[in-house]
Amino acid sequence: NAGVTQTPKFRVLKTGQSMTLLCAQDMNHEYMYWYRQDPGMGLRLIHYSVGEGTTAKGEVPDGYNVSRLKKQNFLLGLESAAPSQTSVYFCATISRLAGSHEQFFGPGTRLTVL
Amino acid sequence: QKEVEQDPGPLSVPEGAIVSLNCTYSNSAFQYFMWYRQYSRKGPELLMYTYSSGNKEDGRFTAQVDKSSKYISLFIRDSQPSDSATYLCATLRVEYGNKLVFGAGTILRVKS
After folding, report:
1. What are the tens digits of pLDDT across the range A50-80?
2. How many CB atoms lie under 10 A from the CB of residue A52?
3. What is the CA radius of gyration of chain B?
4. Measured between beta carbons, which residues in chain A are less than 8 angstroms from residue B41?
5. Structural domain tally of chain A?
6. Contact (CB<8Å) A103/B6
């Protein structure tokens, strides 16, 4: 089992360009999340999804959109990238089963916006 | 006020030392508290979690929650160079789709 995978691992964009980050999981988890991590700020939640076809905003949603068309995939889109979106992006998943408290994280995507 | 506050360090200790990592949280309704460990250029991994108040021990690691003071701690005994990582405290918000709210993370370096 691959667990949680993220594509791409690295990317450099110019201001105004768009891109989509892909998160894929093979654990059949219902809940999926996108976080960004910046120095000295921990991880902050961008958007999340509690099931296929549903999404919700997190703490820092501005400038991002998401889609969850399939249970195993969660896409994060940047329509017009800005330097402030330079960050490391992590996807995570968790089971909806009662007693499940561990979020499993992917390896991250390092994004630089010039 | 941030929901979870954590001193980012860095914290540097000699091998074998006892390490104490601490966080405070703002809302007395929080029930689930996690410690994640993150090695350089990797994703976070769950190290320990506690529910409500009290202590939980796992090998060299002890997690402690003091709800009266809204204080959470992680103790590492006999620290090893392999413990060098960023340690992130977090609370799990069950009422918001099980999202995690993280502290800033503390960078720990254990010197051999």
Report:
1. 999 999 999 999 999 999 999 999 999 999 9
2. 14
3. 13
4. 108
5. 1
6. no
